Amino acid sequence: MHAGREGPLLPILHAVQAEFACVDEAAEKAIAKALNLTRAEVHGVVSFYHDFRAEPDPRPTVQICRAEACQARGVEALMPGAEAAAGDRVRLEAVYCLGLCSAGPAARVGDTLHARLDAETLATVIEQA
Amino acid sequence: MSITVRISDDALARACGADELATAFERAGASVERVSSWGMHWLEPLVEIDGIGWGPGTPDRVAEIMAGGAEDLCIGPIAQHPFIAGQQRLTFARAGRTRPLSIDDYAATGGWSGLERARRIGPQAIIEEVTQSGLRGRGGAGFPAGTKWRTVADAPGARKYVVCNADEGDSGTFADRMLIEGDPFQLIEGMAIAALAVGADRGFVYLRSEYPDAIRKLGAALELAAQLIAPFDIELRVGAGAYVCGEETSLLNSLEGKRGEVRAKPPLPAIEGLFGCPTLVNNVLTLAAVPHIVSEGGAELYAALGTGRSRGTMPIQLAGNIRHGGLYETAFGITLRELVCDIGGGTASGQAVKAVQVGGPLGAYIHPDQFDLPFDYEAYAGADALIGHGGVVVFDDTADMGEMARFAFEFCAAESCGKCTPCRIGAVRGAEVIERIRRGERAPGPIELAPQMHNTVKTARGLREQIALLEDLCEVMRDGSLCALGGFTPYPVLSALKHWPQDFAIRALEPSDEL
After folding, report:
1. Among A14, A108, B198, B396, which residue carries the largest CB count within 10 Å?
2. Does the bond joining B278 to the residue before it have cis omega, within 30 degrees of 0?
3. What are the b/e assignments for B291-302, b being 16+ CB within 10 Å?
4. Which B positions 257-276 lie with beta carbon below 8 A of chain A?
5. Which of A79, A101, A124 should we substitute to test contact with B (largest number of B Cβ atoms within 10 Å)?
6. ipTM over 0.85 threshold
7. If contacts are CB pairs under 8 Å, which of residues 69-108 in chain A contact chain B?
8. What is the pLDDT of residues B325-335, one digit of tens each?
9. Domain B306-396 falls in which CATH fold?
């Protein structure tokens, strides 16, 4: 699928991350062999980007935008409540900008976006994740 | 005859419930057309029936809206709303008016005419017109687009590339996202014209992974348009969550499948870019402005707008704590007072405006006293500020500017590519210094007291000395960093320190600590 692509490493890593929810050591070795790179080179790339994880996390993930525009709309005050709602069941991740800056605070679950969140709606988003 | 209802399928409208609203209208017997967003975000999801708008719509008001009621939500004719009527939309001329993935809608509204004309007039004339229009790079640096195109066209090389930088990571910016989601063919047409001008046969769009809707739509649009732009070919590449990849050399490394580390310049990407070949790297908004410029008489019209050396229009993004947020495209020269107080209607919270950050996380915080500053690259540079990508983030008087300055360093530390020392280490040290200042700590810390640390100050530092340390650090980062991430982080920090010093020393002010 990626054969013949120019600079194919990033698309490959995205595909592996999507399929296995992580890019682990075994995957790094296999990719390195296929692309004629060292494992160190592949690991360097995997560890550089926020989107790739070394091990899978079975928990659902909720990304909450913590950038300036959402801060200006009060996201930081919602965080203690969000953490309480998440507990150990949901993984909360900070994301720097979902591009919904005029309607924050904003969150993303999978490919679904939520905007204009307040304490109550954010807790609902987290509980339903 | 059933009523036709137009509702946006822009990501922001969807995040505010546009899909549920569309379903409710369909259930009520209306036929729903999903169009691009007008850019009036406080009204999303906006409902349009025969040119009349209601917003924000909710499923429980569907029957009322269809009957022509719901007067509290009705804004009258959308195109005559002051927010829309006051704009000069060139890049966003189709916003709200067409279905994003309808190639017929695109062609019916003047689409592809720029590319057709470009094919007739040839590369030399295209570059001349882009130069004549005065178009400058909309990604932030404001480099003259014509000059860059000429450099790539003249660079020797059998293989050349056109790369669209769609890694719009700045907080407070969403114009790239709206353009790609709302009018993807315009970007594709702009890239095809650029490729013709510089002699490239292959293009890439590097789009950030935080924009799932834009990824889906651009992928679909590229398939639909493939025949129309052939033999030029565009591949969509998705980023992986690194802010620094918005920097052009870092983006090229990322496209090559490497760590997104910044490259030293020279060589310029125009000479040695992607895979060592001459590469034209332009922002989404730069490329999307091109079809208009290259159409008949477009360059002159574009050059006639604006002020000083900032020609044409800028899609400005009103964001943060603002009542009427959204996309406002207008000629350069507009003041922040007009943007924030008049058009934006002040803060969403109703409290006083304390600060405005223009140009994303690396842009300066601007005090209301400076609100007469015209929107112009040179005027902003003269005030130690940036236009950047045109994002305007408003803060009300509850904002803690000392915390925002600390956050600027924290963000830089989190997103630094690690290649150059001023950025990699400076960002961490900067956050520490601000924390110390704000905690009221004046005594040297354990690391400074360690015997190995020969050059550290062993006596207590006054507030003034710590501020001087912070300013020194900012100077080193500004002058010594390889790219804008480290080089511009001092802008938000120093502007916050200059205008709101009281927000830095919140505790333990000693008599010697007078600022």
Report:
1. B198
2. no
3. bbbbbeebbeeb
4. 257-261, 275
5. A101
6. yes
7. 69-73, 95-104, 106, 108
8. 999 999 999 99
9. Ubiquitin-like (UB roll) (3.10.20)
